[in-house]
């Protein structure tokens, strides 16, 4: 478990001055607390002797007030420095985790649930913060207070001290014995929280589907079961952790009992003074915190270690697709060449693409038609290396895409994905998302091309209308048109449309295409569509079937092949229009 803390060493080294200052303040706090029983001892002995000296009383009161002020300032100091450092470490580690998540490939997100990742970035980070802050406080304070108190007790009365500390080893064994169990059970609690978080995120994201299928009770039952499981995991932890404090209190009570028995006898026999007895009792009461602190430290370290293991598991993940060393960043004209491309998804027995060869001259439009599952989206994802093509199969301006700097390569493509994703921001912000410096005129221009400007006029707040998570307040056609505007606003050289006009009517589609072709004149575009009307203006069209090209040519050439899939689709769509 402790090996997981290697992740925190660079951060703790960076903030070592804050930790050192905090520990020094903590030692001052503990030292001040150790002085208080000595003031009490002098006062009790003064009362027991019947020698009340107002000047001595005033001196004692002044000393107590001074010590209290020092303790208060020092306590603020160690909280500021140690907790401040742990908060900064939490922030930086969360930034590192999020940044790393952005570098991971889509296959990682296929294996991991979003709710679980969110739990690691939130709930687990809290446990790590406590381990890097409060655990250090409890450990330092516990060790120093224990050593100091035992030293004082043995100096004052070695025989009595030896008797009253008899229960302390049992507390040590108790702490060590329960530590490993606490760590395992806390990890189970964190995993239960991940499951609960994942189910919540999934249900709330798909609430419209749940409502349309009237599956409220089903998802409520799923959530209730996950919630009960999370409760059970917490209770299994609490049963162990809950035993600790009563047991420590019990053994601490025995020390007080032993002091009353043997210390009281020593007072009667005048071996020790009444003040020594009261001071010893105060020190024994102060020993409860170091004993509790040991358990607190073990608990926090075990929890932090379990959470760090979960975070380190993500940080150790390597992205499947990486930028090559010294990746090239040339000016790109937009010439695309695909040579004998075959691609199989990991774990799939059937290739998604087989021996695909296509050439798209810079400035031309390529149209792609095919049935669902024919490999169209896979082909588009291979161009900017959202999926990694085999070397020597995909070229951009006669340079293998795997030789490009990855960010540079992807910055050449403006993509409108089949699965439209919008952010829970305003319409204006979503359109200007891909622009380095969003410009109002540019936003209005691309919105006019996609025709979304006509709809914005009727939105409650116009361009500032918040569209909700994933664009939930917009229709399918509106989401596609905002997505088209977003892609056009980037001004990138290669435009990729993955069935991006499927949710708009024919009239709107024709208007968008006419304006789009005019805007994109002289730039490379790749358009995937099920509509022949969308593809007819392409310079070249390929038809995919089961991952292979079964037809290719211009619209006029393909429409004449009456036995081909393209002509078949064209005929069916013509009949639909006539009906």
Describe this protein's structure.
This protein has helices spanning 9-14, 16-49, 54-103, 106-111, 114-132, 134-156, 158-164, 168-205, 207-212, 216-268, 274-286, 288-315, 376-382, 406-410, 427-431, 440-450, 452-456, 476-489, 506-519, 532-535, 555-560, 565-578; strands at residues 336-343, 353-360, 365-370, 394-396, 399-400, 413-416, 494-498, 524-528, 540-545, 548-553. The chain is α/β, with parallel strands linked by helices and 579 residues long. It folds into two domains: 2-315, ABC transporter transmembrane region fold (Up-down Bundle), CATH 1.20.1560; 336-578, Rossmann fold (3-Layer(aba) Sandwich). A hairpin with a 2-residue loop joins strand 9 and strand 10. Helix 10 (216-268) packs antiparallel against helix 12. The radius of gyration is 36 Å and the shape is elongated.
Secondary-structure map:
Layout: H1 9-14, H2 16-49, H3 54-103, H4 106-111, H5 114-132, H6 134-156, H7 158-164, H8 168-205, H9 207-212, H10 216-268, H11 274-286, H12 288-315, E1 336-343, E2 353-360, E3 365-370, H13 376-382, E4 394-396, E5 399-400, H14 406-410, E6 413-416, H15 427-431, H16 440-450, H17 452-456, H18 476-489, E7 494-498, H19 506-519, E8 524-528, H20 532-535, E9 540-545, E10 548-553, H21 555-560, H22 565-578
Parallel strand pairs: 3-8, 3-9, 6-7, 7-8
Antiparallel strand pairs: 1-2, 1-4, 4-5, 9-10
What is this entry, summarized?
This protein has 579 residues and is of the alpha/beta class.
């Amino acid at each position: 478990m402790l090996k997981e803390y290697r992740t925190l060493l660079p951060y703790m080294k960076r903030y070592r001055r804050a930790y050192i200052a905090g520990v020094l303040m903590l030692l001052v706090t503990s030292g001040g607390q150790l002085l208080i029983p000595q003031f009490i001892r002098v006062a009790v002995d003064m009362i027991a002797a019947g020698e009340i000296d107002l000047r001595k009383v005033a001196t004692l009161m002044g000393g107590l007030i001074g010590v209290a002020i020092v303790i208060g300032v020092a306590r603020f100091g160690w909280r500021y420095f140690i907790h401040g450092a742990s908060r900064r470490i939490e922030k930086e580690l969360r930034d590192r985790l999020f940044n790393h998540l952005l570098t991971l490939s889509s296959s990682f997100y296929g294996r991991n649930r979003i709710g679980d990742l969110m739990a690691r970035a939130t709930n687990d980070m809290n446990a790590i913060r406590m381990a890097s802050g409060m655990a250090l406080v409890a450990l330092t304070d516990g060790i120093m207070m224990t050593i100091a108190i035992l030293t004082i007790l043995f100096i004052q009365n070695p025989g009595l001290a030896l008797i009253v500390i008899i229960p302390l080893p049992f507390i040590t064994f108790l702490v060590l014995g329960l530590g490993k169990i606490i760590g395992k059970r806390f990890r189970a609690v964190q995993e239960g929280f991940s499951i609960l978080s994942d189910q919540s995120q999934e249900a709330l994201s798909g609430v419209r589907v749940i409502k349309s299928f009237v599956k409220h009770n089903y998802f409520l039952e799923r959530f209730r079961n996950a919630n009960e499981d999370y409760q059970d995991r917490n209770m299994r932890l609490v049963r162990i952790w809950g035993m600790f404090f009563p047991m420590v209190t019990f053994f601490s009570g025995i020390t007080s009992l032993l002091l009353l028995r043997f210390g009281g006898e020593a007072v009667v026999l005048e071996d020790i003074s009444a003040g020594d007895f009261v001071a010893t009792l105060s020190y024994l009461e102060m020993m409860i915190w170091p004993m509790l602190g040991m358990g607190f430290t073990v608990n926090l370290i075990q929890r932090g270690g379990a959470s760090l293991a979960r975070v380190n598991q993500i940080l150790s993940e390597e992205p499947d697709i990486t930028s090559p060393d010294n990746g090239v960043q040339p000016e790109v004209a937009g010439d695309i060449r695909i040579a004998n491309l075959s691609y199989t998804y990991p774990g799939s027995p059937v290739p998604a693409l087989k021996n695909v060869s296509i050439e798209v001259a810079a400035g031309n439009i390529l149209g792609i038609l095919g049935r669902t599952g024919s490999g169209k989206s896979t082909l588009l994802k291979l161009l900017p290396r959202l999926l990694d093509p085999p070397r020597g199969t995909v070229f951009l301006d006669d340079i293998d895409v795997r030789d490009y700097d990855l960010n540079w390569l992807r910055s050449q493509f403006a993509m409108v994905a089949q699965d439209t994703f919008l952010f829970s921001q305003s319409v204006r912000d979503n359109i200007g998302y891909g622009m380095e410096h969003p410009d109002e005129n540019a936003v209005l221009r691309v919105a006019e091309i996609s025709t979304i400007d006509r709809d914005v006029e009727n939105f409650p707040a116009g361009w500032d209308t918040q569209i909700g998570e994933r664009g939930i307040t917009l229709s399918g056609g509106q989401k596609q048109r905002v997505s088209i505007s977003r892609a056009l606003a980037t001004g990138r050289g290669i435009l990729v449309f993955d069935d991006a006009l499927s949710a708009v009517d024919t009239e709107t589609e024709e208007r968008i295409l006419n304006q789009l072709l005019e805007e994109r004149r002289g730039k490379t575009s790749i358009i995937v569509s099920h509509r022949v009307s969308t593809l007819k203006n392409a310079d070249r069209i390929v038809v995919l079937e089961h991952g292979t090209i079964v037809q290719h040519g211009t619209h006029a050439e393909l429409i004449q092949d009456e036995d081909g899939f393209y002509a078949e689709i064209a005929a069916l769509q013509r009949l639909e229009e006539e009906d």
